[in-house]
Design brief:
It contains seven helices and eleven strands. It is α/β, with parallel strands linked by helices. Strand 10 and strand 11 (201-203) form a beta hairpin. It is elongated. The two termini are 36 Å apart. The relative contact order is 0.15. The mean pLDDT is 88.
Amino acid sequence: MINNIVGIDVGGTFTDIAILSDGIIKIYKLPSTPSDPSIAVNQGIRETGVEKAQFVHGSTVATNALLESKGSKTALITTMGFEDVLEIGRQNRSDLYNLSIDRAPALVPWELRFGISERVDHTGRILEDISKESLNSLVELIQEAHVDSIAISFLFSFINPERTSTVVVNSYVGPVMSKYLKKLETSLGSDLRIMQSSGGSITASLASEEPVRTVLSGPAGGVVGAFYVAGEAGIKNI
């Protein structure tokens, strides 16, 4: 039976470990290891002496991969004519009437965005199926590009459901997060849950498949903790 609950938060500067055991909370802090965040996590767990526990982990690994442009080399496959959706984006911007505004580059550059002739309607009914010839040509282009991951988002893909910006982020941070979480599972065991941006937690395997869920897991953990403390203090409208 597991009596210990261990919370782990990895930041850019420090890795924090909180241990709840028999109603008592112990806090441990040590410097993070940005080149491989799992090193600091494993070191901290060893030094605290925790053996069996339920681990809940919030991390900025996916966040930092986005902010520092250190994700994987990603290709985007989409409906022909919609290759530049990432570049166009939305009208929302900080300076609406500035025609010379500097925008962050798209996570997938234009040379790695591939359009293929296909079309479904808004109900998901196939109007034009993908031909074998165009698919073979696309495979050759992808192989020549030597990418690490591939995001696929066709027109009206919300029927299936999937959105271009989300699936691109997922593909971009996927290899980084998957490698990291596999290391943690190897050392910490299967009792590992990952904080997600909504404030809840998911299994490490699901976080590896859908790492976009974890992009704001670090801040979300702080909000959940603050909400709990406010409730214990009798503050209802925090």
